[in-house]
Amino acid sequence: MTPTHFPGVLLRPARTPLLFEKTKHNAASSICQATDFSPLLVNGEIMRLTWVRHTNTISTMNNFERLVEIMAKLRGPEGCPWDKEQDHKSLKPYLIEEAYEVLEAIETGNDSKFAEELGDLLSQVVMHAQLAKEREVFDIDIVARKISEKLIERHPHVFGNKKGLTSREVLHNWEIIKSKQATNNDYSILQGLPKSLPALLKAFRIQEKVGRYGFDWDNILDVVNKVKEEFSEFESALKNNEDKSELENEFGDLLFALVNLGRHLDLQAEQSLNTTITKFMKRFRYIEDRLRGMGKTVSESNLEEMDRLWDESKKESDLQ
User: Fold this and answer.
1) Do 121 and 102 touch, CB atoms closer than 8 A?
2) Which residues in 229-243 are b (16+ Cβ under 10 Å) and which e?
């Protein structure tokens, strides 16, 4: 098997020596650094993943290395008091917050803001790696190595000989690989889902995962009928004055069915609901602004007036 190249990385048989040639561009000042990761088994042959970086002798620090050094300094003896007080648990809210800010940046379509928010999220990853390094358990290099190895192992259609897979076959193959790598006897294809995922997103991912194994509706009309069935059961529980726990159970079934309908239509319930929330907030802000122009507040208005302004806001949005 011959070595396989992709940007900055060399995948080669472990027995093959690593040879460097001078780069044609700026050869006089260009040097090559290489880091070997752990061996991998690819298509029955032991392969080695090597990260290769061409650097300039004048300035060998790239922006990522600079970020890692900045984080180490912030945590160092003369660093920032706040940063030095943090641990993995105290940083959890910030990790979630930064992830959501990335999502918001994607929605705005502002690439400059998108890059900035990705940087904020990256800083959280680097911070956690720095904390782990201080505990002498792992560092950012190990984090990068693990994800590199995982990507190669789970993409045999790119780095191995399993060519010509469709997107659906790729996803199914991922699940097969993960199940083979599982060490516990009671492995479940659902066990990797974080418990803290938002419920709508978790429902979507569960349905997506089991669907890869054929546990899914083939016809969209069957999914629609399931939604109608669940709504009928919820309506029945409501009319029969069932207790709150039963109503919650039926309401949950209805939501789960709606998420599944959205999935079959290539719609994510979480994103769809967020779009509706944004639209609602915009229209209600219109009501507040119009009332303010009348010298009134929401508490001084009434439902009839607010309904009229709501309809007005819908007409305004239709014209935009």
Assistant:
1) yes
2) ebbeebeebeeeeee
Q: Count of H helices and E strands in the chain? A: 12, 4
Residue 234: give its domain's CATH number.
1.10.287.1080
- Please check whether residue 314 lies inside any domain of the structure: yes
Block mean pLDDT (10 aa), the chain, length 320: 49 49 39 49 53 47 89 95 96 93 92 96 97 97 93 85 79 74 75 86 92 90 97 95 93 97 94 92 96 95 96 83
Q: Are 263 and 276 found together in one domain?
A: no
Nearest to 69 by CA among 135, 4, 140: 140
Residue 129's nearest CA partner among 148, 144, 151 is: 144
Please indicate, yes or no, whether residues 87 and 146 belong to a single structural domain of this protein: yes
Pair 32, 90 in one domain: no
Please report whether residue 146 resides in a domain: yes
Q: Please check whether residue 93 is in contact with residue 85, taking contact to mean a CB–CB distance below 8 angstroms.
A: no
Do the domain assignments include residue 188?
no
Residues 84-110, buried b or exposed e (16+ Cβ, 10 A)?
Answer: eebeeeebeeeeeebeebbeebeeeee
Query: For residues 99, 105, 109 and 113, what is the CA-based torsion angle, rounded to 10 degrees?
Result: -120
* Token pair of 130 as six digits: 């720095």
Domain span including residue 103 = 63-151
Q: How many structural domains does the chain have? A: 5
Burial class (CB in 10 A: 0-12, 13-18, 19+), 254: buried
Q: Please give the model's pTM, rounded to 2 decimal places.
A: 0.62
By C-alpha distance, which of 160, 179, 177, 180 is closest to 169?
177
Q: Which DSSP symbol is given to 218?
A: S
- Cβ atoms < 10 Å from Cβ of 10: 17
